[in-house]
Amino acid sequence: MPSVRQGWLIVAVVSVVAFLLRLWHLGDPVRLVFDETYYAKDAWSVLHHGYELTWSDNANDLIVRGAVDQMGTAAEFVVHPPMGKLLIAVGEWMFGMTPSGWRFMAVVFGTLLISATMVLTRRLSRSNLVAAIAGILLTVDGLAFTMSRLALLDIFQATFLVAAVACLVRDRDAMRARLATHLETRGLADLDGSLGPLLWWRPWRAASGVLFGCSIATKWDSVYALAAFAILSLAWDIGARRLAGARNPLLRGALRDGIPAFLQLVPVALAAYLTTWIPWLATASGWDRQWAAEHPETALARHLPRALASLVAFHREIYQFHTGSYINHATHPYQSGPWGWLILMRPLGLDAVNDIAPGTDGCPPGTENCIRVMTTLGTPLLWWGAAAALVAAILLWIGLRDQRFSVPVVGALAMWLPWYQYTDRPLFYFYAICIVPFTVTALAMCLGRIIGPVQGGWRRRLGAIVAGLYVALVILNFAYFWPIYTDGILTWSQWWARMWFTSWV
């Protein structure tokens, strides 16, 4: 087992570097970028009123000039739960309704995403080196970097998600340790056919439930990961009991471990989810807040408390928005199907200022016109390597029964495959921010296999050279694309040199 103190030191150092890198010129661009126009303003409304309000038509321009009091009096219909907006509001409370204010908590959670990924990778691989590789690679991923510098919801969702999985893996190890202690204290060689102790209270599993609830309270699609990892967690328990000598643990273990697993994951996640709605419940004027009072004849209003009935009605409206005819017939120039996400088929252009004249706005004099652009593009060499590593991880898990790879495989697939049922509506590449921590984990673990064991001699030295060169190339690749991640100034020729495929334009 690697040194715990050394492991936490590595996590701290990489996290500090990632934080400072993401904090650099956080206030640029000085405007609301892409969906910041919704979430930054929604967060400010929630901060001051507890629910989302409408804003004046020209609010975006006035906000960047310092005139932030542009809220109306009517409630605004929103299509995502409140967790991410509550967190964005923390930054706005600290630094005001400014670009740095509405983006600051994204930096914090973008850094925590790297920390959580390193902790998860270390526990799976039992290697501080592999964890460090995962942290460094995610630090220099273009998608994770840009999403950590914008007031969008997805970075919060991804952080809670990875932290939830890390807690569940920690619970797996704790359960195995408790099972071993049970045998040791009784002087038993194995369970001799019995199922072993009833381990109802599992604090790490309960913590995972809270974090899954927070992730779902940011965006609903994390519910797929909760379902997938609940099943995987139960499979871990059944496998541990079988290894300890239990006879036919599948059916009996499904009840013995399945019931407490369900109770400490699903109801706990639901409670955490509902807690994030308290600001809305505490108001009288939020969207649909008076729905039950206005529809007393409905079954919801007759059988549920009015506040809860109104909340259910609100959720029904949100679901209808996401699946209804309006969204299914909408189009967007940057929409991207999930089949292309892992290979960077269609990144998202968030913001651009075109045709900047030479000698103005940082454009070098005497040259061609320039462009300032911000694009959510994963670092190509990282993403292509991670896609290959995901395939390798599936083969290693299923073919060679290396159970360590079950976590990144299940995590990546649970946050990727469900999107295929929604391809009749506009989808965007940046949704993959919930996939990349798992593919990076798989990649780091594959690089760990290339490096080999500590006593590997010349083979380990060769593997370390190969892995080190790859990591160095990824860092250089990130540096090359730095201007399009940070709204940097580029001549048109420089920008075209970074558009490696026509689908990126």
UniProtKB/TrEMBL annotation:
> In what residue span(s) does the ArnT-like N-terminal domain sit?
14-237
Give the UniProt entry's GO cellular component terms: endomembrane system; plasma membrane
How does the protein associate with the membrane?
A: Multi-pass membrane protein
Report the source organism: Raineyella fluvialis
The membrane spanning regions, by residue number, are 7-25, 102-121, 128-145, 151-169, 261-282, 381-398, 428-450, 462-482
Tell me its EC number(s), please.
2.4.1.-
Summarize the protein's role. Protein O-mannosyltransferase that catalyzes the transfer of a single mannose residue from a polyprenol phospho-mannosyl lipidic donor to the hydroxyl group of selected serine and threonine residues in acceptor proteins.
Q: In which pathway does it act?
A: Protein modification; protein glycosylation
Q: Does the keyword Metal-binding apply?
A: no
Q: Which UniProt keywords apply?
A: Cell membrane, Glycosyltransferase, Membrane, Transferase, Transmembrane, Transmembrane helix
Give the chief site where it resides: membrane
Which positions fall inside the Protein O-mannosyl-transferase C-terminal four TM domain?
310-504
EC class: transferase
Name by which UniProt lists this protein = Polyprenol-phosphate-mannose--protein mannosyltransferase
**Record's subcellular location:** Cell membrane; Endomembrane system
